[in-house]
Amino acid sequence: MYEGLLTRYKEYLPITENTPLISLAEGNTPLIRLNSLSDELGINLYGKYEGLNPTGSFKDRGMVMAVAKAVEAGAKAIICASTGNTSAAAAAYATRAGVKAYVVIPDGKIALGKLAQAIMYGADIISIPGNFDEALKAVRDIANTEAVALVNSVNPYRLEGQKTAAFEICEQLGKAPDVLAIPVGNAGNISAYWKGFKEWHDQKGTLLPRMHGFEAEGAAAIVRGEVIEQPETIATAIRIGNPASWKLAEAARDESHGYIDSVTDEEILNAYRKVAAQDGVFVEPGSAASLAGVIKHIASGQIKPGETVVTVFTGNGLKDPDTAMSSADIKIQKMDDVEAMRQHLRDGVAQL
Ligand code: F0G
Q1: Which residue's CA lies nearest to atom 4 of ligand 1?
Q2: Would you say 85 is a known binding-site residue?
Q3: Where is the Rhodanese domain (predicted)?
Q4: 82 Cα–ligand 1 center, Å
Q5: Model pLDDT for residues 208-238, shown as the tens digit of each residue
Q6: What CATH topology corresponds to 5-57+156-327?
Q7: How is 318-330 classified by DSSP, letter by letter?
Q8: Which atom of ligand 1 is found nearest the CA of 50?
Q9: Which of 6, 157, 239, 315 is most buried per CB count within 10 Å?
Q10: From the CB of 183, is ligand 1 less than 6 Å away?
Q11: Number of the ligand 1 atom closest to the C-alpha atom of 191
Q12: Does the predicted TM-score (pTM) go above 0.90?
């Protein structure tokens, strides 16, 4: 039986005999070949579907490790700032470990599904008028003086847990891809993947990918080289103007001979619709930033024809039903009898 990341990758993680091996069977997510997009784009494209983690995002990988270490150190409560997914994961793993979760979120800027999760898992939810960056600053201050463990990705155990996704990709493909494309918000995940690829290569000789990270244009602090005071993007998950792991992300980019670039909301929405409609994978808008970036970098020649590319789909499309409903061309037809349905189907099938 699969028992989650702390058991699966125990020897590669900072686990001691006192670390509680908590689990919701996170990790072990599918690497899905995107057949239609591969043909269209002329590359060998895979999606690492992190939306199939227990709370629907990659955050579970880091959170299981961070919460386990917090409990090991005697914490009774954890705290995080979040654009939504971190709060869902923190709330779930806190419940699992028997501690209290405090989550601080930007008012009105978190997707509905994520808020519903934090509510259902029983977190103490605090909403602030500011953005994620301000929420992060507040929780860092609070964690300095209060008896609560900070579980944002500034906590190094988060990156330790998150690096396991790179291990899985190497195991699933048999080696590292040529390119790893990933959305960048607070920049923890790109840093964690790079750490994971390097460690796995050191152990198993699986080679190293080029890291291509993508920020949303309205929140592209690293690309522009300056803090963005008022970040804006439809992809609320990555609506972050002052990434905490900025330097680590730049190191991942430089060491891997990769790029950190930006994509517009229009490019994000295009990729978001395409991967669902063409390859049957529903991801949240923030996750589609990586695919939008792949499309952009094929056009610009930064990704070459025939290369093997893994795009990380960080969160499940079900997290954000509002964006799905408002961005798609909705064709729901009301019919009141079977004959009308039959005729509708005949007309449709005749055109296939
Ligand atoms: N994709 C999704 C779906 C996310 O929720 C996040 C970050 C990212 C990508 C970016 O990852 O921050 O490591 O660069 N979400 C955080 C949160 C900020 O609070 O849930 P990153």
Answers
A1: 237
A2: yes
A3: 78-121
A4: 8
A5: 999 999 999 999 999 999 999 999 999 999 9
A6: Rossmann fold (3.40.50)
A7: GG-HHHHHHHS--
A8: 3
A9: 315
A10: yes
A11: 13
A12: yes
Span from the CA of 122 to the centroid of ligand 1 (angstroms):
21
User: Is the CB of 117 inside a 6 Å radius of any atom of ligand 1?
Assistant: no
List of residues 6+ apart from 193 with CB closer than 8 A: 162, 163, 165, 166, 180, 182, 211, 252, 312
Residue whose Cα lies nearest atom 7 of ligand 1: it is 237
For the record, the structure tokens of 190 come out as: 């790109």
Q: Decide if 5-57+156-327 and 59-150 have a common fold.
A: yes
**Nearest ligand 1 atom, CA 189:** 13
pLDDT tens digits for range 245-262: 999 999 999 999 999 999
270 is in an annotated binding site: no
Tell me if 187 is assigned to a ligand binding site: yes
Specify the pairing of strand 31-33 against strand 44-49.
antiparallel
Buried b / exposed e over 120-148, threshold 16 CB at 10 Å, is ebebebbeeeebbbbbbebbeeebeeeeb
Q: From the centroid of its chain, how far is CA 233?
A: 16
Asked if residue 24 has pLDDT above 80, the reply is yes
**Domain spans of the chain, in order of start:** 5-57+156-327, 59-150
Give dist(CA 102, CA 81) in Å, integer: 9
pLDDT per position as a tens digit, 258-293: 999 999 999 999 999 999 999 999 999 999 999 999
Is there a binding annotation on residue 205?
no
Write down how long the chain is: 352
Q: Which two tokens stand for residue 22?
A: 């908590």
